[in-house]
Amino acid sequence: MASVAAWLPFARAAAIGWVPIATHPLPPPPVPKDRRRAEDEKLLINVSGRRFETWRNTLEKYPDSLLGSTEREFFYDEDSREYFFDRDPDIFRHILNYYRTGKLHYPKHECLTGYDEELAFFGILPDVIGDCCYEDYRDRKRENAERLMDDKLSEAGDQSLPQLTDLRQKMWRAFENPHTSTAALVFYYVTGFFIAVSVMANVVETVPCGHRPGRAGTLPCGERYKIVFFCLDTACVMIFTAEYLLRLFAAPDRCKFVRSVMSIIDVVAILPYYIGLGITDNDDVSGAFVTLRVFRVFRIFKFSRHSQGLRILGYTLKSCASELGFLVFSLAMAIIIFATVMFYAEKNEQDTNFTSIPAAFWYTIVTMTTLGYGDMVPGTIAGKIVGGVCSLSGVLVIALPVPVIVSNFSRIYHQNQRADKRKAQRKARLARIRIAKASSGAAFVSKKKAAEARLAAQESGVELDDAGRDEDIFELQHHHLLRCLERTTYKSP
Question: BTB domain: which residues (predicted)?
Fold first, then answer.
């Protein structure tokens, strides 16, 4: 013990460069006998050619796992005197680190499914992942589950299509994926063109086009060129009606199609036209149905069929329903509170616009959303202070849920991008399989006929050529493999 203490000053001085390092090695540090364990030994673990060394006691910290229990002896190699595992060595590094430190980390660059399989093989639960990595692991797990659910739903939809007739099946696939054929692509662009024309006509018909004859005021283009806009609206409605009826005819589940959001939008967009046809100008109830023309603006939502961004925005709003509800609820509470305080702060002011608490709602809404029209302005010092606090509170209340909505939009957008990429990859793979199958199809038919002829000859007692028989078996297995790949890759449209 004294010799070690004598070496310590020199070792510390050599470490910082005060004196040269000694040529003789330092004596080993003393280890008390009570700390030594006779059963502790160094184990060598070979994972797919990469060797890891650790202590037995390190592995036995977790006896419920594979390496910590006696089950590891099934993987012991007597010749090399090591434990051999035919697993992923990169992921095993993190598993062994869990035995050493008690903290399991998730490598972001590794495949989630492969990581879970390695943990399941070594008997480690994913719940022990450290707090530093658990959020990333949970997000990847959720994205993977959503991706698998989308693939399952798409496969379920494809499996339901063969139950339809060939015409309905082709029509529905053309409506859902316009790039399947030239006719579907033409119909896709024609409907998009008429949607744009309908929306533009709805806007242009309100533009002033001269003065009213014998009356004050301007005459809108919709009344001046009534016949032109009526014919244009009729053409657009005919296209929309034909599209809706064709989709209804080709839908796999018509009841589900009628209840869908896009179907309701289509009906609301074309319904005012047919109601207007049955109402005359002299009818007393015609004024009540004039307001139905405002529903023509819903035709702009038909663009969501043609725009992936609009669909992603709709999915984002749907997934952020709780955050949007929190935003509306918090805004409503703040509006009521500040409107009440503002009313009592401006109550004794002459010619004030804050005549009641509901009248102050408009001021608090405009202030909290940072619009500031200036039509209602507080006159007292207390009212100005309340207005300033109201504007700052509005900024905070609105800014808090916005990052959550943005992150959800980014997540859904990337999911759709990955889904489109997977569909393109499956389509390309299916094309390659079909090319390989077509090139070997003719040869396979001839080889099959030759095999049948040789089989018949064998039954009659004639000896067969072994080389030819092996070639036929190879061709048969090759063709069978191509068919299996085609079935498991993607159903042909």
Answer: 41-140
HSE-CB of 272 using CA atoms within 13 angstroms: 20
Backbone angles phi, psi at 245, to 5 degrees: -65, -40
Which residue has tokens 């004598």? 6
Which structural domain, as residue segments, surrounds residue 338?
311-427
Band of residue 183 on the pLDDT scale cut at 50, 70, 90? confident
Length in residues, the chain:
493
* pLDDT tens column, 418-444: 777 777 777 777 777 777 767 666 666
CB atoms within 10 A of CB 364: 27
CB atoms within 10 A of CB 129: 22
In terms of C-beta density within 10 A (0-12 exposed, 13-18 middle, 19 or more buried), how is residue 280 classed? exposed
* Strand duo 50-55 + 42-47: pairing: antiparallel
Domain count, the chain: 3
CATH number for the domain that contains residue 82:
3.30.710.10
DSSP conformation class of 376: S
Nearest residue to 296 (alpha-carbon basis) of 342, 242, 377, 240: 240
Q: What residues contact 217, with CB distance under 8 A and at least 6 apart?
A: 211
Both 400 and 415 in a single domain?
yes
Round to the nearest angstrom and report the end-to-end CA distance of the chain.
82
455 lies in some domain: no
C-alpha torsion 476→480→483→484, nearest 10 = -170
Report pLDDT digits (tens) over 297-344. Answer: 777 777 777 666 777 777 777 777 777 888 888 888 989 999 999 888
Answer whether residue 162 is part of any domain.
Answer: no
Q: Which two tokens stand for residue 285?
A: 């109830």
DSSP 168: H
The H-or-E segment that residue 410 falls in is: helix 402-459
* Whole-number Å distance between alpha carbons of 26 and 364: 78
